[in-house]
Amino acid sequence: MLCIRFLTILVITTGGNMAKCAICGKRMLVGANVSHAHNVTKKYQKPNLRKVKVTIDGEPQKIWVCAKCRKAGKVDGINRK
Ligand SMILES: [Zn+2]
């Protein structure tokens, strides 16, 4: 007898009102964890969002940016102490 246990993750939709990255638009992923017995539970995958202080049109503002965009230097005018 061959018994194969497997885990399936289905990406159903993206998150609703959660903050998203202002640069790339990355937001929370919602999927399903499906067990061998086919018990379906929700599974969430959140991006590493950080609130950064930037200067837009001469005014200091706070925007949500993912850590990947921040590290890649895609955000101009980050106010550092
Ligand atoms: Zn991003």
Outline the structure in words.
The protein is mainly beta and 81 residues long. The protein has one domain: Ribosomal Protein L24e, Chain: T (Roll), CATH 2.30.170. 6% of the residues lie in helices and 43% in strands. It is built from one helix and five strands, in the order E-E-E-E-E-H. It has a three-stranded antiparallel beta sheet, with no helix packed on it. Strand 4 (49-56) and strand 5 (59-66) form a beta hairpin. The termini are far apart. The mean pLDDT is 81. Zinc ion (ZN) is lined by residues 21, 23-24, 26, 66, 68-69.
Keywords:
single chain; 81 residues; mainly beta; Ribosomal Protein L24e, Chain: T; three-stranded antiparallel β-sheet; two-stranded antiparallel sheet; binds zinc ion
**Poorly predicted runs:** none
Strand content: 35-45%
CATH-derived topology: Ribosomal Protein L24e, Chain: T
Task: Tell me what the CATH architecture is.
Answer: Roll
